[in-house]
Design brief:
GNAT_dom; Aminopeptidase; Acyl-CoA N-acyltransferase; 25% strand; binds coenzyme A; acyltransferase
Length: 181
């Protein structure tokens, strides 16, 4: 499949019932397929109600980019960026927060086709637009990656993310950031 086989879009708010279902399905698949890659666990998510799933994505404080397979409508991958306000709720950190990239996942059959790059690119463009004219600190996008996740680290590195001095709560993870401009 080439680049034209996929459509990259962001989940519109208010979120449709179909999008809640597809988001839930892909997120649970991501957590079962690559549990090592995420801070969140399948067991903590599988029993969430539809309203809880909806609440996660039905907000303008979150940008969720999705790669849709044009021929089938299947969602091949997704990644979200949380605003600084939402990122604070996510991490429990009350201090000033940068934007936070979370939930980066591509179905195994669709990997190495540039989708990770395109999904993050869409997220960075969203941050770039909403922070136009602001100081660099407000334009930062951070993420946490497992220190042995070579494919994800290579992806982020290729997009200009650099490792920061900071530490993550989980010592197996390292923080990276980029300025969206
Ligand atoms: C990491 C992940 C999102 C990459 O998605 P992807 O769509 O395959 O990535 P892309 O095709 O856009 O790759 C872009 C670049 O990233 C790097 N990269 C991606 N996968 C790689 C791999 N397995 N090995 C080495 N480099 C890799 C390459 O530099 C690649 O460019 P290239 O194909 O021109 O060499 C995907 O492997 C995945 O979902 N992994 C499991 C979940 C995960 O680790 N999420 C990250 C949590 S922090």
């Amino acid at each position: 499949m080439d680049n034209h086989a996929y459509h990259i879009f962001s989940i519109p708010v208010p979120v449709s019932e179909e999008h809640v279902d597809k988001y839930r399905e892909l997120r649970l698949l991501a957590l079962t397929t690559n549990p090592e890659a995420f801070g969140s666990k399948y067991e903590d998510n599988v029993d969430k109600t539809r309203a809880q799933w909806r609440a996660m994505i039905d907000t303008p404080e979150r940008f969720t980019a999705v790669a849709r397979v044009l021929s089938t409508g299947e969602w091949a991958g997704m990644a979200s960026i949380l605003t600084p306000e939402m990122a604070g709720q996510h991490t429990g950190d009350t201090g000033p927060n940068p934007h936070l990239l979370v939930g980066m996942w591509v179905r195994p059959a669709h990997r190495r086709k540039g989708l990770g790059k395109r999904l993050i690119g869409a997220g960075i463009e969203w941050v770039r637009t909403r922070t136009e004219g602001m100081p660099d600190k407000k334009r930062q996008v951070t993420l946490e990656v497992h220190r042995h996740n070579e494919s994800a680290k290579a992806l982020y590195d290729g997009l200009g993310f650099v490792v920061t001095d900071g530490e993550c709560e989980d010592s197996n993870r390292i923080p990276m950031f980029v300025v969206a401009k």
